[in-house]
Amino acid sequence: MPNVLVPTPRGQMPAWLAIPLNTSAAPGVVVIHDVLGMTRDHRNQADWLAQAGFLSLAIDLYYPGGMLLCLRSIIRDFTERSGPAFDDIEAARSWLAAQPNCTGKIGVIGFCMGGGFVLLLISGHGFSAASVNYGGKLPPDFDAFLKLACPVVGSYGGLAKWEQGVADQLQIALERALVPHDVKEYPDAGHSFMNQHGTFLLKLLRYKANGYNEPATFDARRRIAAFFHQHLDR
Fold it and tell me: Does the keyword Transmembrane apply (predicted)?
């Protein structure tokens, strides 16, 4: 169950706050879920980030009415690049930065749908580092986002046909814009390789182009934690 409520323009957003064992102030990370919303897997993403030393807040963008009622409006906000979903993310960032055990520097990480949101949050949204994990194709005008972009770490599965080439495109764009970055494609992993969902979903997803891949996950987590420490500990 969510363990904190974050005030937003629409009301109280349930969220999962994972706190590092170290009692000193830590950088924060807002965690944006995949299409399945506030699952045990989503909370686990915040938990491993906390173990890596970050005050991590896994938010629930479906809180006004659940996935079926909210997904349409989420897609609309994503397409228009503004709206209640972005307001909720900003509320989470501001709330986390104001916590007494936070240094005030905040990163953002997203998976699948959440990774797509992160691509649109790297400039002008107050984040100091961003982690994009299989976030879909780049927007056509992506270069325009990079003028004020924060450092970006990206991870993709090479077996996901609909995302083939995206890692290379992202790396080239970030290099061209002189944005600090670490982008990697895992050739033996597919889409959602860092997500572990329930048994039923795993049966549906257990084919080469999709599903959890432990070696790729461990390496991606190592890279993300190192990259976030590099850019959020300053």
Answer: yes
Q: Which domain holds residue 53?
A: 3-233
User: Is the pLDDT at 199 greater than 90, yes or no?
Assistant: no
Q: How many angstroms separate the first and last alpha carbons of the chain?
A: 33
- Print the SS3 string covering 20-82: CCCCCCEEEEEEECCCCCCCHHHHHHHHHHHHCCCEEEEECCCCCCCHHHHHHHHHHHHHHCC
User: CB neighbours of 10 closer than 8 A, spacing ≥ 6?
Assistant: 64, 84, 87, 88
41, burial (CB in 10 Å: exposed 0-12, middle 13-18, buried 19+): buried
Total domains in the fold of the chain? 1
Q: What is the mean pLDDT of residues 214-227?
A: 98
At 99-111, the pLDDT tens digits run 999 999 999 999 9
pTM here is 0.93
**Encoded tokens for 172:** 């080239």
pLDDT tens across 54-88, in order?
999 999 999 988 787 788 899 999 999 999 999 99
Tell me how far apart the 2 most distant CA atoms of the chain are, in Å: 44
Here the CATH number for the domain that contains residue 51 is 3.40.50.1820
